[in-house]
């Protein structure tokens, strides 16, 4: 969508404090952080809400959330994190392009815990946002992570309906983060 601010961020038309990018997804720091390290993960291709996201991208975007939550909390010394996403205007979605929030949390937080934190801009975190960016990225954005999808696209010869039936028979999809070492190899050490 040409008038969508997150599409413009995805295309590079609007600069952002990028922490992660791969072929399909992008993550960047929220300019109005609710805590130090508050970031957003978006699909590059416009999807208004989670239910508008192509099915094959639903697994991968959450795998990236998992990957980034681990890196961000470790690098910033956070003790926990909130994950959130407003879907639809009635749910408080400000930008109608799907975005998932990771809000790191600290024992020293002056703000209220839980989802209430999502409604309070943290002015200290906003002031130090460039320092936060360099702490998370260490000078270069986090490299792309391998994700897995149980998508119809993985088997283009079968229709979505057939794929659905196949998935039901197969049971649980396989995720890519079974081995803890895989998470950190090319990210934590550099
Ligand atoms: Zn968009």
Name its key features.
HIT family, subunit A; alpha+beta; binds zinc ion; disordered C terminus; 5 strands; 190 residues
Summarize the structure.
The chain is an alpha+beta fold. It is built from six helices and five strands, in the order H-E-E-E-H-E-E-H-H-H-H. The protein starts with a helix and ends in a 6-residue tail after the last helix.
How would you portray this structure in words?
- The chain has 190 residues and is of the alpha+beta class.
- It has one domain: HIT family, subunit A, CATH 3.30.428.
- Helices cover 31% and strands 13% of the residues.
- The protein is built from 6 helices and 5 strands.
- The protein has helices at residues 5-11, 55-76, 123-127, 129-137, 160-170, 180-184, and strands at residues 18-21, 25-29, 39-43, 80-84, 100-105.
- A 5-stranded antiparallel beta sheet has the order 1-2-3-5-4.
- Strand 1 (18-21) and strand 2 form a beta hairpin.
- The longest helix has 22 residues, at 55-76.
- The chain starts with a helix and ends in a 6-residue tail after the last helix.
- The structure holds zinc ion.
- Residues 1, 4, 6-7, 46, 97 line the site of zinc ion.
């Amino acid at each position: 969508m040409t008038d969508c601010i997150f599409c413009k961020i995805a295309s590079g038309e609007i600069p952002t404090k990028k922490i992660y990018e791969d072929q399909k997804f992008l993550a960047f720091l929220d300019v109005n952080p609710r805590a130090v390290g508050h970031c957003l993960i978006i699909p590059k291709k416009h999807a208004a809400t989670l239910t508008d996201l192509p099915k094959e991208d639903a697994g991968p975007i959450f795998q990236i959330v998992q990957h980034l939550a681990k890196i961000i909390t470790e690098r910033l010394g956070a003790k926990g994190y909130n994950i959130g996403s407003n879907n639809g205007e009635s749910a408080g979605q400000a930008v109608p392009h799907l975005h998932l929030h990771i809000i790191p949390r600290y024992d020293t937080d002056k703000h209220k815990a839980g989802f209430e934190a999502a409604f309070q801009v943290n002015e200290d975190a906003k002031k130090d946002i460039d320092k936060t960016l360099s702490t998370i990225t260490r000078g270069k954005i986090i490299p792309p992570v391998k994700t897995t999808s149980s998508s119809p696209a993985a088997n283009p010869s079968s229709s979505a309906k057939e794929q659905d039936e196949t998935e039901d028979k197969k049971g649980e999809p396989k995720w890519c983060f079974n081995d803890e070492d895989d998470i950190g190899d090319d990210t934590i050490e550099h």
